[in-house]
Design goal:
By secondary structure, the chain is mostly helical. Helices cover about 80% and strands about 0% of the residues. It has one domain (about 1-25, about 40-120). The chain is rod-shaped.
Length: about 150
């Protein structure tokens, strides 16, 4: 957002500066004079080289402006690409870290399940059956003595 404002301000400044140079390059009157002839009005005198420089400056001003705009665009693009790359790297790191954590937790859960399965004793059912049978027989024998 700031770069757009800066770019707009630069363009306005460039336009303001180019208005006076454009008016100098387009004189209202002209006359061809020979060496030593007086100028018929108050004026600036330019030789052919100076006139060519003024015209060339006018023609090159737009190209310079376009080059500056292209340079700014490339700088902004590079900056944004760098920011996007940083964010992409951070996101990839977070995703990979999360996935590694999930995988390690799954492995740990599988190990715990295996430990529980290995430690489960199927003999408890046998022991429970023997204990219940002994309890029932003891109760029946004691009931037989009491009656």
């Amino acid at each position: 957002m700031k770069s757009m404002k800066r770019l707009k301000a630069s363009l306005v400044l460039l336009l303001i500066l180019s208005i006076p140079t454009t008016s100098l390059a387009n004189p209202g009157k002209y006359v061809n004079l020979e060496k030593g002839q007086p100028v018929p009005w108050k004026a600036w005198c330019f030789d052919e080289t100076a006139s060519a420089n003024i015209i060339a400056e006018k023609e090159l001003a737009e190209k310079k402006c376009q080059l500056k705009i292209e340079k700014e665009k490339e700088l902004q693009k590079a900056k944004f690409d760098l920011d996007i790359g940083k964010l992409q790297a951070e996101m990839d790191y977070e995703v990979n870290t999360r996935q590694a954590t999930i995988d390690s937790l799954k492995k740990e859960n599988l190990k715990l399940e295996q430990i529980i399965i290995d430690n489960s004793n199927p003999d408890w059912l046998t022991m429970f059956s023997i204990g219940a049978s002994v309890g029932i027989l003891t109760t029946a024998v004691l009931m037989g003595f009491v009656l």
